[in-house]
Amino acid sequence: MDQAMAVDENVRDRAQELKRIAGIAAADALVSSNMRIGMGTGSTARYAIHRIAERIATGELSNIAAVASSSQAAEECYAVGLSVLSLEDPRIAGELDLVIDGADEVDTAGRVTKGGGAALLREKVMAYAASRVAIVVTRDKHVADLGLTFPVPVEVVPFAAFPVRLSLERYGFSVSVRSGTGKMGPVITDNGNVILDVLFDGPQDVALLESEIAEIPGVVEVGLFTRRTFDFFTVEPNGTISSP
Ligand code: 5RP
């Protein structure tokens, strides 16, 4: 292995370690027995799922009822022996005590962009069904303004993709249809829709945009979360947790 590759791997390992610290911190601080928990999607939230399973295995936690925000989150749950329930299940009855999820960007007002894993619709449904939502992120996810570096995902029914794209371009935004990897053509979400990734042309009134974009016919959900309050578990480069 040459030196550059070794350095790359060290950086990757460190990045994973920081995500693990954030996931564990939230799972240790906020999860107690008898909770109904929404399991988030992504490479940070997965560590919370694993930690919850570890705490169940040691007998520290019992009677945890899990709902998954995506097929990936469900797979993570199954891999560690956690069953996944629907929001209709009588043990859940449409409400969650806690969600632990990741985010793609967090602004200075604590508003977030989600949907890097194309799970924004179920993530938003769960966030609004929950009494408390913990967001687990590394410090680099904190930005001054949303949507300038990491695009804001918009989930759209396939029939409406073209006109919705035009509507978003009329704002002056750059819009691209998210493509799959390992598959030709667009990403198809867990709900059978496509994703338009939208980069803003400058700082925006993101609360207003969340409403306006959601009102475009054919839009199912937008990955801006501006109205929910969150408990942030931000891991610093030195491994300490700060909030936010
Ligand atoms: C998936 C999400 C994820 O929570 C978000 O993309 C962050 O993922 P990661 O922790 O892997 O950076 O919103 O739709």
Q: Would you give an account of this structure?
A:
This protein is of the alpha/beta class. The chain is 32% helix and 20% strand. It has 6 helices and 13 strands. It has helices spanning 3-30, 45-57, 71-79, 120-129, 161-169, 206-214; strands spanning 36-39, 65-68, 98-101, 105-106, 112-113, 133-138, 152-156, 174-177, 194-199, 219-222, 224-225, 231-235, 241-242. A 6-stranded mixed β-sheet has the order 2-1-3-6-12-13, sandwiched between helices. Strands 8-9-7-10 form a 4-stranded antiparallel β-sheet. Strands 4-5-11 form a 3-stranded antiparallel β-sheet, with helices on one face. Helix 1 crosses helix 2. The radius of gyration is 18 Å and the shape is globular. The model has no long low-confidence stretch (mean pLDDT 96). The structure holds ribulose-5-phosphate. The site of ribulose-5-phosphate has 18 residues, from helix 4.
Short description:
The chain has 244 residues and is an alpha/beta fold. Helices cover 32% and strands 20% of the residues.
Small molecules (ligands, ions, cofactors) in the structure: ribulose-5-phosphate
Give the CA-CA distance, first to last residue. 38 Å
Oligomer: single chain
Helix content range:
25-40%
Strand share of the residues?
15-25%
Q: How would a crystallographer describe the biggest sheet? A: 6 strands, mixed
Number of helices: 6
How many whole angstroms does the radius of gyration measure?
18 Å
Q: Point out poorly predicted stretches.
A: none
Strand/helix succession:
HEHEHEEEHEEHEEHEEEE
Query: What's the arrangement of strands in the largest beta sheet?
Result: 2-1-3-6-12-13
Derived structural class:
alpha/beta
Total number of beta strands:
13
User: Averaged pLDDT, please?
Assistant: 96
